[in-house]
Amino acid sequence: MRPIRISDGNVEVLDQRLLPIREKWVKISSYEDAYSAIKTMVVRGAPLIGVVAAFGLALTAPSKDLDAAATKLKSARPTAINLAWAVDRVLNAAKNSADSYKAAYNEAMNIFNEELSNARKIGENGERFFEDGDTVLTHCNAGALATVDYGTALAPIRIAKERGKKLRVYATETRPVMQGARLTTYELLKDGFDVTLIADTAVGYTMLMGRIDKVIVGADRVLRDGTTMNKIGTFQVATMAKRFNIPFYVALPSSTLDLVSELKDVKIEERDSSELTQIRGRRTAPKGVGIYNPAFDITPPDLITAIITERGVYYPPFDFTKVGP
Length: 325
Ligand code: MRU
Description:
Distance between the termini: 30 Å
Bound molecules: 5-S-methyl-1-O-phosphono-5-thio-D-ribulose
Radius of gyration: 19 Å
Number of helices: 10
Oligomer: single chain
Mean pLDDT: 97
Shape: globular
Strand content: 15-25%
Low-confidence stretches: none
Structural class: alpha/beta
Number of strands: 16
């Protein structure tokens, strides 16, 4: 299933806030539309927010200040590097062409097509880690809904199924936005997978009970030593996997690699307190309580068994300058 559809310059995205209850499509015709869709999490997932920002910038009226639009778009969500990467690509394409509008749109299309092919290749490169009969745990949603199709973490699972392997998937709820409960289960059930939902707090016990053979997650940004920023809770899952000697894989397209930044320069997004004090508009915590709501965490490379990209698979110590190891 694809969360974005494009035809003749029309771009529409699936409103992921409404899933799994309702499928509603929202039009993206400008950078303002893209900014709002990304900020409010109509769309989410590192590769997808990059693609949507790219089209938003490309569809912005030529009379507008593209630099200002690009800066605004990049500010929508600070942790996933795909966002700034995609916006810069479209901006550069526009600046280096006499027909900036056309060049920007073509570049957004290139990014879309590259992410589509990258996701499939991640699946092909990662499928080998999953054996017939395995039960695989994933956290958050790094599936088709977070990309343009297939997913990153879910791509190897999909390709394994295509090749006749029977896998069972455990999805964490992924509080507070519930990407696991609402999105991962939704897209995997649609594709005929055997999916079991667990509370985030059940990860350790589920592993202790011997129910999990492998873990695979996506990423929002990976630094040159393999340090991985991903959905809050990933570090806990990785720590538990290490405790039980369960392989822990991270899957991402190279648009998620940040080989330049130092850890201290990476901003971990903190989201609105209402995500923790309310569930669907109903208050679940007392007024006046202090709130700390980081949307992502940091998993150190020593907890990661392998990093799967479209270029190939990397093992510790991670060196992404090698192509297709
Ligand atoms: O806050 P979200 O839903 O945008 O966070 C998404 C994640 O953390 C995903 O695991 C990550 O973007 C990888 S998506 C292929």
